[in-house]
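Q: Structure tokens for this one, please.
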Amino acid sequence: MRIGFFIWEYPPRITGGLGTYAVNITRELIDMGHDISVFTMNSGELKTREVIRGVDVNRPMVIDGSNILPLFITEDLRRWDSGLKFFNDVLIYNVLSATKFVNELIKKEGYEFDIICAHDWLSAIAGIMIKNELGLPFVFHLHSTEWGRKLDGGSNTVIYIEEAAADTADGIITVSYPMQEDLIRRGIEAEKIRVCWNGVSTELYDPAKLDEHAIEELRSGYGIGAEDKMILFVGRLIPVKGVINLVKAMPTVISRHPEAKLVILGQGELEKTILEMISRLGIVENVKPNFAFVSEEERILHYGASDIAVFPSLYEPFGIVALEAMAMAKPVVVGASGISGFRDLVIPSGHDQTGVHVDGSNPADIAWGISSLLDDPEAANAMGERGRARVERYFTWERSAMNTIETYHEIIDSAGR
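A: Here is the predicted structure, written as tokens:
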């Protein structure tokens, strides 16, 4: 089939999990024989159209109209202050993308699309506009929600866009069963919602391919010795990721396991807070922050160098980082209270156990989860091996792409095409 694919992040512009999803799922769909036209954001210096690994990539160039927006925007958006430029970019990207899709690709070049998909509120306006103009089957992918990201707060405008797209769409795809349940609780039509899990490359994330010398160098660079236990956090340093509660948990972990060393890998608004907390708690020798967005190759090396990976999120629609760690045969401690896709990924007990579920809002519970794995390294290693096997069975990008295409066919059929 030919797919119109609207997504905020796409290579070489990747800032998080959405971009990781975009590059992997489109490659798999191309390898399966489908045609894809991607519409994504242009940071200013990228080509407005090119073919990347078989994908037709369109990046309309936006212009700054943020000084005009206050004339007609809501009070909600006025509170965005400097973020108003961001909303401007989102709005213009959507309008230009929808216009180019309809007028150039379809009317001028004669492309015939089977379906359009828009990912999150950042591309939802384009999906709504094209659906209204052409009536094409429209799938709205909800990787996260505004109320979830902001812990039941956030922008009413963004929430309205999400709800309008969900109402307009012929079908909705979300990333986990906890997310599906949350959308239904929020009043979104249950019959529209399907779940398609994300994936990970088991060829790329393969512990058998690790360079032991590189691992020793990485650990040594953090001051972590052969007898120490490296605990790894990877993610954006924002409140919903639970990193502050992880730092608060470390004194308790260290009191039981002085050999525990936490590496925090990521960037975000909490960098200064993390540094101040590490100093105040007196755990500078045991907590090693690395405020960087590293390459995938270096991230894989960090997983390989670690003994345990910890992701104590307060809200996590899916959690690709847990899959990455599991693919690298590492036991994981994950925040599983509230809306957490980690519950789909990580088995917390029994013969198939791959990790530990904790309450990411409770430092004592996080400390318990970490310590329970450090107390029994042999059992923890076995969880890591089972985690690798679970990823190979259920969470490859190939399986994710197959499920997505099957769902697209269902939605096209239900739309009467």
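A few notes: The two ends are 13 Å apart (CA to CA). The chain has a mean pLDDT of 94.
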